[in-house]
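Case study.
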Amino acid sequence: AQSVTQLDSQVPVFEEAPVELRCNYSSSVSVYLFWYVQYPNQGLQLLLKYLSGSTLVKGINGFEAEFNKSQTSFHLRKPSVHISDTAEYFCAVSGRGSEKLVFGKGTKLTVNP
Amino acid sequence: GAVVSQHPSRVICKSGTSVKIECRSLDFQATTMFWYRQFPKQSLMLMATSNEGSKATYEQGVEKDKFLINHASLTLSTLTVTSAHPEDSSFYICSASPGDSRIEQYFGPGTRLTVT
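After joint prediction, the assembly is written out as follows.
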């Protein structure tokens, strides 16, 4: 079984500042890792995913994440945030061979002017 | 590409009635569809996995007789909440996985159910 821990429930930042949203996972098997964004009253949009290969993954809207197997982490970063990045961000994991996604509890990113 | 729609986006029903939520993959065939429930300010909890033409697989603690899932075609899955009660009020989100890949899921916009 897999589990995901998002270490921060809320992250407030100022516009144009860098941001890191932290995600740690546990699994007894190799994993696929995902970051999703959810705007109010909407479904989830995939930001990026790690399936294999390079541990640095670039996604949409200027986000990137780095898979660190030794630390079982997959932190999400953006060098300069915009007001429009204000949303809920979910880290998710699935075990290889499994189609089920396990989600973290989410991190609410609030970008202030 | 990879668009998933849900209908309705919002529904209000009276306690004791049933409500059906549709999930459609608009531009791909979805071998597998998933139904999630999200409580306010919480994460998504997987309710069930459905494969086209077969019975849904429910997660532990989810009442299959209350949450009826039908995956009648490769582009449509429905979730029927039977005899709804106020505690069933929630945000229900579906996702669909293309036939050639079970790794990625594409999410619908969600349905807000309010039971009065």
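Observations recorded in class. Chain B touches chain A at residues 4, 6, 32, 34, 41-44, 46, 49, 91, 93, 95, 97, 102-110, 112 (CB under 8 Å). The two ends of chain B are 37 Å apart (CA to CA). We will return to this complex in the next lecture.
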